[in-house]
Design goal:
Blueprint (H helix, E strand, L loop, with lengths): L4 E6 L17 E2 L2 E2 H10 L4 E8 L4 H9 L3 E4 L5 H11 L7 E5 L7 H14 L3 E7 H6 L11 E9 L1 H6 L8 E5 L13 H12 L14
Parallel strand pairs: 1-4, 1-6, 4-5, 7-9
Antiparallel strand pairs: 2-3, 6-8, 7-8
């Protein structure tokens, strides 16, 4: 029997670097809102049973659009990524095996990659699994990681044991495993700036995205 997971799309950030184009989850890549692309990837995963979009007072238009997509929306305080994630998880009563926490700025994410991350989480049996990519590979594609830890960049895709998170206090440590993605890194490209949008559009226009793609905008 396939274990079922809750998915929470984090779509409530300030997105200050993208403001000239509007709320970041609604910026379009290939004519489609990034939020809708992330939701489609989650729907393509065999493990995802329920999808919740976590918005905030900073993203009122995203609330409206997410509801048009038929998504359940929870409006978090906008206190920060971790704080809003905990807020949503603690207010959603589910019997799921865990939760997939995914950023709303991953236009090339796929259901297969989500499946792989969940399967690693189930295999290692820890409280959390964080998906990371080598920072140099992201730079080779023309994107500057927002955060680098020991030459690895967090991808914005995490799997959590929701029961453990709810039972522990905000200051308790969760035992975590890291999944490092070295192939098809483009699936974890985060679009954070107008230059990133142009770069993503350029990659998409090539038809087939390869790890050797260089040149074009923002390089």
């Amino acid at each position: 029997m396939v274990q079922k997971f809750l998915a929470i799309v984090m779509a409530g950030g300030l997105g200050s670097r993208m403001r000239e184009l509007g709320e970041k989850p609604l910026v379009k890549i290939g004519g489609k809102e990034i939020l809708s692309l992330v939701v489609q990837a989650l729907r393509n995963s065999k493990y995802i049973e329920q999808i919740i979009v976590a918005c905030s007072p900073y993203t009122p238009s995203t609330v409206t659009e997410a509801r048009k997509f038929g998504m359940t929306v929870v409006i978090a305080p906008g206190a920060g990524y971790i704080e809003d994630m905990r807020y949503v998880i603690k207010r959603v009563n589910t019997g799921h095996s865990g939760a997939v926490i995914v950023n709303s700025d991953l236009p090339f994410l796929t259901g297969d990659l989500i499946n792989s991350a969940i399967e690693d989480f189930l295999r290692v049996k820890k409280h959390a699994l964080a998906v990371m990519v080598p920072a140099w590979r992201m730079r080779k594609l023309g994107f500057e990681p927002s955060l680098v830890l020991n030459d690895l960049s967090p991808a914005g895709l995490n799997i959590l044991d929701t029961k453990a998170l709810v039972e522990k206090s905000d200051n308790d440590w969760l035992e975590q495993e890291t999944m490092i993605v070295t192939n098809k890194v483009f699936q974890l490209v985060n679009v954070n700036t107008p230059d990133d949008v142009r770069r993503a559009e350029w990659l998409l226009a090539r038809g087939t995205i390869r790890e050797t793609d260089t040149g074009g905008p923002n390089t």
